[in-house]
Amino acid sequence: MIYPVPAVMVTVTDCQGNDNIITVAWTGTICTNPPMAYISVRPERYSYHMIQETGEFVINLTTRELAYATDFCGVKSGRDVDKFKELKLTKQKSSKVAPPMIGESPVNIECKVTECKELGSHHMFLAEVVAVHVDESYLNETGKFQLEKAEPIVYSHGTYFDLKHQLGTFGYSIKKNK
């Protein structure tokens, strides 16, 4: 009952250079220094062996506009369809890993696997973040990422949601009124 969770598209590639996109809801930040993230993937998923082979993946954050593609990449297998081609998504070359980034994504996080934990139905890939790319159109004049402009989506119990309102900023609960 931990909800909602991010719905991201993860790009992977195998040793022969075949690319795929998998939708993942089990993902997040696990460490600041060094920067680390994780994804959890079922071993029977087509992308699983690709991550095992290369030890690399890219977490591509999603938007309201990418909701259809996010769902499609979660229900269609890369064994049967080229998701980049089918969805007309732009492959962009990553700077430090082999899997491509999704050009339409506002944020792309390049990761190198440091460990795989076999936990049951899912195996968790712990990874060091080796590069982060942010579409500059989502940055304000001071370089701060504008989440509301990106229109991120989340997933909860089989349903995708968008986010609407800011409720506060870190520390607002103890801030003194002026």
Question: How would you describe this structure to a colleague?
Answer:
- The protein has 178 residues and is α+β, with helices and mostly antiparallel strands.
- The protein is built from 4 helices and 12 strands, in the order βββββαβααββββαββ.
- The protein has a 7-stranded antiparallel sheet. Strands 1-11-12 form a 3-stranded antiparallel sheet, with no helix packed on it. Strands 7-8 form a two-stranded antiparallel ribbon.
- The radius of gyration is 17 Å and the shape is globular.
- The relative contact order is 0.20.
- The model has no long low-confidence stretch (mean pLDDT 95).
Count of discrete alpha- or pi-helical segments spanning 4 or more residues: 4
Helix content: 10-25%
The average pLDDT score comes to: 95
The geometry reads as globular
The topology string of helices and strands comes to: EEEEEHEHHEEEEHEE
Helical/strand content category = alpha+beta
**If strands are numbered along the chain, what order do they take across the biggest sheet?**
3-2-6-9-10-5-4
Largest sheet: 7 strands, antiparallel
Total beta-strand segments: 12
Estimated share of beta-strand residues: 35-45%
